[in-house]
User: Which sequence fits this backbone?
């Protein structure tokens, strides 16, 4: 039934429904990089998406919360976005998501356009993730970057899809507030040159320790693949390559942990930026 001019409210009873097929397709494909939409789950992430002006096109709710839903602030917020609202039985949620304990909200979000940074100032802080394969690492880096005031995150090469549900979960909501964009090597190098960016690479084989380095902005911190590190072309465009000093037998750290250490060091030098 049509609820008002701002949205539709329907109950879905069959997995053959076209909308449920759309959810399943996006989840199965893990919302590939070239898709126009992606999927997220849960009330917390729904609020984060709305608060950061992401367009929620379709919202599927557990029918058990139908009575309380219309008194929930989320209801008023999604109506303002012209969101289509649907209800379905909990068993349908389980089948769509293929898990036993799904949350009460599943929703489709439209990707934003033109996410590349537009304004660069002298204190700009950014990172680039090159060929990072693990979505959990990307989400954790997003979370840390947002916490330490990084302005933007570039995703380069064969880096895992940032729109996957795994990245969103691992980011604990930072996905929706941190600026990020996919970029080619050519465009990244052009952006660096145009804006006179100080590029700092990371490698456990470097002879320069990060704690002794005098960070200079505008800054791009380059983080490489979990196993192979930065590619030669990106490393050759770095002003300096740094390593983290360690004491034990382990010579390298998890890429998300290492990224956090570098970002914390930058934050200590520039705590009042942004």
Assistant:
């Amino acid at each position: 039934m049509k609820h008002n001019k701002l949205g539709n409210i329907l109950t879905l009873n069959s997995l053959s429904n076209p909308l449920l097929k759309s959810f399943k397709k996006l989840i199965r494909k893990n919302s590939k990089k070239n898709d126009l939409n992606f999927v997220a789950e849960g009330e917390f992430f729904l609020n984060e998406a709305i608060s950061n002006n992401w367009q929620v096109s379709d919202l599927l709710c557990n029918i058990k919360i139908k009575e309380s839903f219309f008194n929930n602030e989320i209801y008023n917020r999604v109506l303002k976005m012209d969101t289509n609202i649907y209800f379905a039985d909990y068993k349908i949620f389980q089948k769509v998501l293929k898990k036993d304990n799904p949350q009460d909200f599943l929703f489709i979000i439209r990707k934003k356009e033109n996410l590349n940074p537009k304004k660069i100032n002298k204190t700009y802080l950014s990172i680039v993730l090159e060929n990072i394969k693990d979505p959990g690492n990307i989400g954790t880096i997003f979370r840390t970057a947002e916490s330490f005031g990084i302005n933007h995150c570039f995703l380069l090469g064969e880096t895992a899809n940032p729109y996957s549900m795994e990245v969103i979960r691992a980011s604990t909501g930072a996905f929706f507030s941190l600026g990020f964009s996919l970029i080619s090597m050519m465009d990244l190098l052009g952006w660096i040159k145009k804006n006179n960016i100080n590029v700092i690479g990371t490698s456990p084989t470097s002879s320069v320790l990060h704690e002794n380095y005098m960070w200079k902005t505008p800054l791009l911190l380059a983080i490489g693949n979990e196993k192979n590190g930065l590619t030669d072309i990106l490393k050759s465009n770095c002003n300096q390559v740094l390593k983290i000093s360690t004491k034990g037998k382990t010579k390298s750290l998890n890429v998300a942990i290492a990224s956090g250490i570098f970002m914390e060091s930058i934050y200590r030098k520039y705590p009042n930026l942004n």
Q: What stands out?
A: The chain is about 35% helix and 20% strand. The longest strand covers residues 56-62. The longest helix spans residues 255-269. Confidence is low (pLDDT under 50) at residues 1-7.
